[in-house]
Amino acid sequence: MDSQAKPTLNANPPKRSRKILGSVIAVAAMAGLGGLAWYLTHQPATPAGAPGAQGPGGPGPGGPGGPGGGGRRMPATTVGVATAEKADIPVTLEALGTVTAAATTTVRPQVSGILQSVLFKEGQMVKAGQVLAQIDPRQFEMALMQATGTRQRDEAQLENAKLTLNRYRTLLTQDSIARQDVDTQAALVKQLEGTVLTDKAAEGTAKLNLGYTKVIAPISGRVGLRVVDIGNLVGSSDTTGLAVITQLSPIDVEFSIPQDSVPGVAQRVNDGATLPALALDRTRTATLDSGKFSAMDNQIDTQTGTVKAKARFANSKLTLFPSQFVNVRLELNTIKDAIMVPVNALRHGTNGDFVYVLKEDKTVTVRPVKRGAATVDKVQVTEGLKLGEQVITEGADRLKEGAKVTLPGAKPAGAGGASSPNGEHRRRNKEGAAKQ
Predict the structure, then answer these.
(1) 110-136+215-245, what's its fold?
(2) For a disulfide at 73, which of 52, 122, 224, 370, Cβ 3.0-4.6 Å?
(3) What is the DSSP letter of 319?
(4) Residue 68: what pLDDT?
C-alpha cells in the first residue's frame, strides 16, 4: 500500500507551481497596464506650432485628456486650397426650346391647268423667284390675245368718237348744229373711254394668268417632297399644293421664360440691349449656333407661369432643323470684376453660407459670406471675402474654427527630428513601468 500512495503524494507539487506561475503573469500584466495608463495621462501638452494644435482660441473640449486639452491633439488635416479671383461672369437664363422656321409656305398654282413640267428636286435649296413648275400656257395665251384684240377695237372706236366730237364742237361755234348732238357725242366718248379702261384691265388679267402658269418660289428655303406628278390637273383650290418650302436661314427658336425673370428681360430689351443667345444640343455640351433675343409674347400662360419668347439664329451651317428640341442659353447681363471661388469651397450652415479661410499660420477660420451668381464650377461671393484670400476646397468636413492644416506636399512640423518629444515620452514610460 505504501507503493500505491507515493504517486498521490508526488502529484501536489506540480499543481502548486502552476498556480504560482499564473499569479506572477497576472501581476506582470497589471504592472504593464498601470505603466501604460501613467504614460497616457502624464504626456506634456502639444506645442502651439505642432501639427494637431488648436488655433488661437486655445485648446477645446473633446480631445483626449479631458476638457482642459492637456492630452494628445489630433494631427493636422491635409486640405486643398484655392485663391479668390476676380472675373467677369455672365448672368444667363436656360430653357428648353423648339426650333421653328421663320417662314413656311405651301406652293400652290394660282391658275388651273395641266402640270407640264416640274423644275425642282425634292429637298433642294431654292431661292425666292425661282421657277418650280410649268403649267400648260396655251389657253392663257389665247385669252391674252382675245383681250388684246378687244382693247384695240375699243380704242379705235374711242378715237373715232373723239374726232367726231371735235367736229361737232366746231359746227356748234358756227351755229350749224344743235347743242344736244354735241352733248350726246361727248357722252359717247366717255362711254368708250370706260370700255377701253375695262379692256385694259382684262388684258392685264390675261397677262397675269399667263405669268401664273410658271409656278415660282415665294421664299428662299428648302423645298420638301413633291406631292403632284407631271400630267395632273392642278388648281388654286388644291389643299396639298405642289410642294412646301421651309425657310432655314435665318431660323427661330421658341422657348419659355419664367414669370419671375420677365421683368429683368423686359428691362434689358427696353434699354435697347442686345441679348446674346446660344442654341445647345441635348447634352448641353456642343453649341449648335449663336444668335440673339428676338421677341417676347404679351401675356403669361396661367397654367405654366411662363411667357413664350423667341430668339433668332443665322443658321448659316444649317445645324438647326425645324421642330428640333434644343437647349437655349440667354445671356441677360454680365457682372464685372466679381470675386469668384470654386463651388466646393462654399459651405452652408445653420447661420447661412460660409467658407474656411486659410491664415498665414496655417490655421483656418470660419468666414460668413453671401453668395451671388454662379457658373458651372465657380460661384460669386458678394460679401465676406477679399480678393486674393485663400479658401479651403477639399477636406473641409474635418475642420473647425482654428484647426491646423497642411497643404499637399508640405512637410509636417517636427517630423523625424532629433528634438522631437518622442524620446522624452519613451523615457517617462520606462520610469513609470519601473515604479509600478
Answers:
(1) OB fold (Dihydrolipoamide Acetyltransferase, E2P) (2.40.50)
(2) 52
(3) -
(4) 41
- Domain assignments of the chain as residue spans, ordered by start: 110-136+215-245, 137-211, 247-336, 337-406
Domain 337-406, what fold?
A: 2.40.420
User: Candidates 3.30.420.40, 2.40.30.170, 3.30.70.100, 1.10.860.10; correct CATH number of 247-336?
Assistant: 2.40.30.170
Strands 405-406 and 77-78 come out as: parallel
Say what the pTM is: 0.59
Specify whether the backbone of 401 is left (phi greater than 0), alpha (psi in -120 to 50) or beta: beta
As a whole number of angstroms, the distance between CA 290 and CA 333 comes to 16
Nearest to 390 by CA among 370, 413, 407, 371: 407
Counting every residue, how long is the chain? 436
Record the cell numbers describing residue 136, joined without a space: 400648260
Residue 412 is predicted with a pLDDT of 54
Helix, strand and coil in the chain, % to nearest 5 = 30, 30, 35
What whole-number distance in Å separates Cα of residue 391 and Cα of residue 345? Answer: 7
Question: What backbone torsions phi and psi does residue 254 show, to the nearest 5 degrees?
Answer: -95, 135
What is the pLDDT at residue 250? Answer: 93
Collect all residues with Cβ–Cβ distance below 8 Å to 57 and sequence separation of at least 6: 401, 402
Q: Provide the CATH number for the domain formed by 137-211 in this structure.
A: 1.10.287
pLDDT along the chain (436 residues), means of 10: 44 58 76 71 44 39 40 70 87 92 92 94 93 95 96 95 93 90 94 96 96 94 91 90 93 94 90 92 92 93 93 93 94 87 88 89 90 84 88 85 81 47 49 48
